[in-house]
Amino acid sequence: MPRESVHADVSTRRIAVTSTFSGTGIIVFGAVDNSRQVSAESGLYDVVIVISGAPSRLVARKKSNVGGLWINTSSVTFTSVPSYYAISSTRPLDEVASDDVLKSSGIGFDFVPMTFHRSARNLTAPEIKEWRDAVVRLKQHERLYQQDEYGVAFVGRSLFRSAFDMPATVTVGAFETRVYLFRDGELLSTYTTKLDLEREGLEHFVHRFAFDHPFFYGVFTVLIAVGAGMLASYVFNRNKA
């Protein structure tokens, strides 16, 4: 019998981000080709879906109590951290596959692909884990890292779907959606598709102007600030008189 494989797609591959953007929802749906399960309830397969945003540089800082004051006492620089990382699965990951299998595919908060700056090369393994865990907790608090252990549901012997939430603070750019098909802890097939968050309207114009002409953008913002201050002063003095 032919080996099973997975195919998937997203509800939209392009999301417009304007000044009124307040977050959005994404549906990932797909099918298992050559499925051997007799019904959606049989549970023969596990599906894990990971959506990750473009990696970016991040500086993590640790605060300590020094003389009764909480101040930054140490920091670590990451050269690459996914700006968004969401996991959805048919059941908890530790029931889907072993840590070795999950690690090899970068599945799970313990295995989020993160790259430390070379200045952190002297960190010990426990220290590395501590800093990684701190970044994950911070991203979770911002709703940029999410996990739904029962978020993928089969709607037939081969069809499945899952919903994802992207908050308003999500970073604009390219996103990668990876779908993994497991059976009895073995990774059978993977599928990757893309989606993009793109600025539109005034947001797009301002962003492009700021990056293409940084000097003029700086001058323009200073003039606006000065003009706003002068206008506020004029209105205040007029009302006072």
Q: How would you describe the overall organization of this protein?
A:
The chain is built from five helices and 13 strands. Strand 10 and strand 11 form a beta hairpin. It has 241 residues and is an alpha+beta fold. The protein is globular. It folds into two domains: 195 residues, Immunoglobulin-like, CATH 2.60.40.1930; 41 residues. Strands 2-13-12-4-7-9 form a six-stranded mixed β-sheet. A four-stranded antiparallel β-sheet has the order 1-3-11-10, with no helix packed on it. It has a three-stranded antiparallel β-sheet with strand order 5-6-8, covered by helices on one side. About 5% of the residues have low confidence. Helix 4 crosses helix 5.
Structural class estimated from helices and strands: alpha+beta
Mean pLDDT: 85
Radius of gyration: 23 Å
Number of strands: 13
Give me the oligomer status.
Answer: single chain
Low-confidence stretches: 201-213
Q: So how many helices?
A: 5
- Determine the N-to-C terminus distance: 90 Å
Find the CATH topology of the largest domain.
Immunoglobulin-like
Instruction: Identify the overall geometry.
Output: globular
Strand numbers in spatial order across the main sheet: 2-13-12-4-7-9
Query: Which CATH architecture of the largest domain would you pick?
Result: Sandwich
Could you spell the SSE succession in H and E letters? EEEEEEEHHEHEEEEEHH
Name of the CATH first level of the largest domain = Mainly Beta
Tell me the number of structural domains: 2
Sheet bearing the most strands, described? 6 strands, mixed
Strand content: 35-45%
CATH H-tier superfamily of the largest domain? Macroglobulin (MG2) domain
Which bin fits the share of residues in helices? 25-40%
